[in-house]
Amino acid sequence: MIRAVRSELIKLWRPRPVALGLLLATGYAIAAAALVLAAVRPAGRLGFGPSSQSLAAAGGGTEVFTTGLAFAGFFVFVLFTGAVAMEFSRGTIRTMSLRQPDRLRLLAGKLVAMLGTAAVVLAWMEVVGWTTSRLLAGTHGIDASAWAGPAGLRAGLGDYATVLYWITGYALLGTAVAMLIRSVPVALAVGIAWAGPFEHIVADAWHLADKVFPGLLLESVLGGDRYSVSTEQAFVTSLGYTALAAVVAATSFVRRDVS
Amino acid sequence: MTTGSQSSPAISVVGLTKRYHGTTVVDGLGFEIPRGVVAGFVGPNGAGKTTTMAMLLGLVRPDAGTGFVLGEPIERPARYMSRVGALIEGPAMWPALTGRQNLRALAALGGHDSGSIDDLLALVGLSDRADDAFRRYSLGMKQRLAIAATLLGDPQLLVLDEPANGLDPVGMAQMRELIARIAADGRTVLVSSHLLDDLEQICNWLLVIDAGALLHAGPASGFLAGAVPRVIAVPEHPHDLHRLAALTAADVDGAALVIQVPDADPRTVALDVNRAAIAAGIVLAELGVHRADLQTHYLDRVQGASR
User: So what's the ipTM on this one?
Assistant: First the structure.
């Protein structure tokens, strides 16, 4: 697996894509922090999104970050679906399989490298998001004095772990779709239709959708208890989906011919 | 068990079969390729060449039959693929990466030393363009980079599927020269191609398949030994054609007389035709003995098999 990780990192860690990726991640983190703070609820008022009261707690700085990120799950899903399906469409999966015939190791190495890269980008985004929130908190009447202590650090690390779980879930779901379909346009069409409109439209009409659909469950894990499903329940159920996606992706890749 | 011993053939398969949606693409194929030969793999489009190669390389599972590559069973490609370099279904690499980065990524994936990359780029004539993006390469350059990738790790066996596909005549000549140079190091090479003249120049072993079944497996000279030489004569005046045909018991083919010579010495037959023509006052514009080349004999065999 280490060989596959190293190979994938050679592809991912090139100066221009890294610079562009960090630029986009920085822009997103700043914009998301600004938008979440602009939409913050006054303490005591019901509604969607974090309240000024919760943001004043030790984990307020990184709560802004996770709230801003919850809406990006769709993009993560599409990114992984496209990246994996592209290997099939270009025929590079064949080239890779010739160099690493153990397909489980190949797939695991590729995902570890991609998720490792995503982890670095997310860590950077959390720092940028926290800093932006710290600078803007005062203008929205939020007391950020508790953010910088040890409790704030613990909350930040906890939120980071949640974000890593969230992105792993979307990554495996996207990879499973790509492994099953193996075509970029079809995989993206299916992925976009499902994770985008389908889950949310059904959720408007069916109150159990939050507890059933994998994308909404992962959103709930990141968004906290503001959804109709508890964070714990969302975590357990989405963990099942994530494990199933991993099995489907691995089985499909190992058992089917690579042509 | 000496499965990986140097005495075993480079490739051997028995009863290799693959079906797609009820259609048999490879039908009970069985052959051996000794180590150190350059084997040409010949067959029309859809004959099953690429599928056979894909089964040898662990990309496609056979529905029946088995085989060994470098002494290891094809069901366990991880045991031998580090000693095999392969190009199958065209050069597939990452377009945004440079040629050098592509080779580095593949060397890392195969667990090979990346120290040979500069030498390989020089071997395929891409040193000057090594740091250009793969997407900016011409097809010939992409094919050559893919050949360089097959040589990572100094493999014992090369499997090349249509390496000259889509190349112009200059590119084809370069590819032929490159394969000959690679084979000169004593590696076993299995190369499929539609360009039979090219294969004839570089191959000393031949596999011929049609509709998934084997027509010939063995030395290239053995395949051509079955070809019947022909004496071809063309009279100066077309109106002498049938008169000469009557004198020599030859077949008329367009503006020429064609005499198949399966048993006799074709040179003696040509002399007899010349004497008969002179005696009848016929001037010959052309007279010669034609021994079948790979292309002609291959077409005879494939068309014969389909009849």
Answer: 0.84
